[in-house]
Amino acid sequence: MNALIMMGGLVMNRMMKMKGESMNKKNSMVSYVVSVVTASVMTWSINAYAGGAGNHQHMDHSTMDHSKMNHSGGGHHMGGEQHAHGMTVSVTGEPGKASDVTKTIRLTTVDAMRFNFKDHPEITPGDVVRFIVTNEGRINHEFSIGNAEEQKAHQAMMRKMPDMVHEDGNSITIKPGETRELIWKFNGEPNVVFACNIPGHAEAGMVHSLLVK
What is the pTM assigned to this prediction? Predict the structure, then answer.
């Protein structure tokens, strides 16, 4: 745009030095130059605005680091913040209501990568279980309910985004020294797996398989 203005100024200076031309001709030339410069500036402004407005659409998202982005519109909170799926589905059942609880199971998580149940868990189809989970370790642990395939998929996602903290209907993250609850209705597939899907934890043995019968 600066180049266009300079060009217009040079032309006008040249015109003012011209001799032997009538004032009407000068005025006509001035009007012409002004209209050319104005049209050029308007075209440049429109193109610049269009390029800026469409800038996000043409960004290469494959090169962006999404691991620290906050996708709050979709319920995804990264960088150590909460990650909520909104609609949580597991073939093993569904989130239960406190008023429907039929059984309470207490357990602890430890840094030896184990779930320690106070009593051996026994669950029958249709049970609504309140899990009371205490983290006796010094690092975060997770308690997640699903089947083997769901837990493997969850683990793969966590390896890609290790700072993710889950707060789903079938999964909770427990901080050191914290006690939390999860209520689950077992009205689906009977082969259930409890797992901590923080990277490396399940692989080290922090899983427990259960047959609902």
Answer: 0.61
